[in-house]
Amino acid sequence: MTQYIHGGVNRRKFLGMTAAGTLMATASANLFSRATAQSSRPNVVFILVDDMGWGDLSIYGRTDYETPNLDRLARQGVRFTNAYANQTVCTPTRIAFLTGRYQARLPVGLREPLGARSQPASNNIGIPANQPTIASLLKANGYETALVGKWHAGYPPNFGPLQKGFDEYFGHLSGGIEYFTHTGTDRILDLYENDVPVQRSGYVTDLFTDRAVEFIQRPHSRPFYLSLHYNAPHWPWQGPNDQASTAFYLTNGYTVGGSQATYAAMVKSLDDGVGRVLDALEASGQADNTLVIFTSDNGGERFSNFGPFRGQKASLYEGGIRVPAIIRYPGVTQANQVSNQVIITFDLTATILAATGTSFHPNYPPDGQNLLPLLRGDRREFSRTLFWRYGAALTTRQRAVRSGDWKYWRRGNQEALFNLATDPGETTDLKDSNAQVFTRLRNQFQHWELQMLPYGS
Question: Shortest CA distance to 324 belongs to which of 5, 45, 99, 1?
Fold first, then answer.
């Protein structure tokens, strides 16, 4: 049975919601799904937003504003309640998505996050030339590939989007930009057309939407992959009618200022943009053959709604890594579905490649799971064991493992064990009463970490 989330989400509502959300499909729907999926390769629109909290969409529980277009997308497909980002800050999650593998397998994935282009150390690191990306794999399989929006995974001439498989690029390369002047935190212009900096007038969320819509509306002789990476609702806190705030941010840091009303305006502008993208797919007759995925690169910041969760961005508590996620795949997903399945960013990579008939390179096998069997109803929800590590400083380094409903958490020398099924807010440490589980998860983390690069690599 489908269950919608209305109003705020307290612990009791959350537990009832996650108990009710299962992803099932009928036999007839399965047959239709397979026939449709095999008839032609789908287009892909992957929408990645920045610093959005788990509860920042109205369908996830936000009550002080509405997000009708993203709510519509959720009602047309599958909404996940147990979706995670690969990291609690942006660059590592993007590396995980682009490669389909744990970000700590690459030195750039240890940048938490990658610094501004004006910092010399940031210009000589990125995804290596021999490492395939989702874009390069799709391009080799006959797809048009375009990226609109935030990159933050390396800088040209060696590590930009065009060097990593995208045919074209319009967006910003660094972690965050002022929404009207399009300058990065170093106050240098950071808006690019391919590898060339460009001046454009307008609110950057709208500029990204305009370009995405224009790309969709073009004639296409091949299937396309469009990655639309909004900067919103990442700081600086500026809504579409807040151009006067530019003067404030000329002399103040980008992380200050703002209000709940400003944040609402940013998210509503983002939602309007997603609505325009969905409408463009409909108007061009491509909606029925386009896989659309929406998620965030990490948890939210100070104006976000975290639902029942503790922590925020830069924390490995649930609030820092639990994110909204929606998948709509006509002919494969049924409408109005809520899934409790635990998923993580690089699962989306594996799913996109599977849906498009694209294989991973055999030398770089995926760490993520292809979700298509789940989406079709051929597989029931299944247990996962996932790992996180954040922070180079050993005294404050955070570690986490989710295995089934259990979560191992560590910061410095402080360790805890939580049961997320009964305690999503991570308030009760159960390591003493469940010593075997605690030891097993801690040992699993240590084994996993030996397969990753150490900090400083």
Answer: 5
